[in-house]
Design brief:
With 274 residues, the chain is α/β, with parallel strands linked by helices. It is 41% helix and 16% strand. It is globular.
């Protein structure tokens, strides 16, 4: 069965629209440089804001911007009525992304990458969770896919996906194995997975011979080659062997966008409680 992230995302956004339509929320997106992938993602966020009547504040800087100038902007956004702040990655090497993320008020950190939110996730405390990881859990829940007691293999250990999804799965009582670029004999681990989550950005890294029959496959990775999009999973050869699988596009991507909207609303609630 196809896990239709687009359909579930539309349902989530429809429910949210009623809640936030008159709240005067604002999303600020900070971009440094002109990365083409970033431009695509920012356009998706702009469309989301237009759909939900959210003010969209796109702050775009040249590559040679100083770190201090960006920090000053974040300080300003922290103090004003901005609801959520997001630093669009990647950014130039001369600027410390972690320093910028930790300058963002954790109650406005809609990416969930501030150290306060990271620690809250690890320690099972309430906080804002990275959008993609949150979206994956929502998708599994919407399709009533059991997580507790299952062997889950996560391929990838990024701060955006691999690490947070591992913590969320542990919270749901899964047995979690994290694999990465230094893992030897990847197939040895993936063949044991009841649920496999691939988040590497490597085209068709996961093949049919690497999964067990009736496994649940969550494909987070996305690669654009010669104008065509590919996932980490060889979808055509894996789909009939799996019990559930996400397509690329139309699977995890829309869930990430829906989770961003949920995080923005959550940020509003956190700030209102101050």
């Amino acid at each position: 069965m196809i896990l239709d992230g687009k359909k579930i995302s539309e349902e989530i956004l429809s429910d949210l629209k009623e809640k936030i339509n008159k709240l005067n929320l604002t999303l600020a997106v900070i971009q440094i440089g002109d990365n083409q992938s970033s431009n695509v993602y920012i356009n998706q966020k702009k469309k989301l804001c237009n759909k939900l009547n959210i003010d969209f504040n796109h702050q775009k800087f040249p590559l040679d911007i100083s770190e201090k100038e960006v920090l000053d902007l974040i300080d300003s956004l922290n103090k004003d009525k901005t609801t959520g702040i997001l630093l669009q990655l990647p950014i130039p090497n001369q600027i410390n992304a972690e320093k910028l993320q930790n300058r963002i008020n954790y109650k406005k950190d809609v990416d969930g990458l501030n150290d306060v939110n990271k620690c809250n996730l690890i320690n099972n405390k309430p906080g804002i969770v990275p959008c993609t990881a949150k979206g994956i859990i929502t998708l599994l829940n919407k399709y009533d896919i059991e997580i507790a007691g299952k062997n889950v293999v996560v391929v990838g250990r990024s701060n955006l996906v691999g690490k947070p999804i591992s913590n969320l799965l542990l919270k749901k009582d899964a047995t979690v194995t994290v694999c990465h670029s230094k893992t030897k004999d990847l197939a040895k681990f993936t063949l044991e997975a009841d649920i496999l989550i691939a988040a590497t950005g490597i085209k068709h890294l996961i093949t049919s011979s690497m999964i067990r029959k009736d496994a649940v496959i969550i494909d987070v990775g996305i690669s654009k080659i010669d104008g065509k999009l590919y996932g980490d999973v060889d979808f055509e050869n894996v789909k009939n062997k799996s019990s559930y699988i996400t397509p690329v596009p139309g699977g995890v991507g829309p869930m990430t966008i829906a989770s961003l909207a949920e995080n923005l609303y959550e940020a509003y609630i956190l700030q209102k409680e101050e």
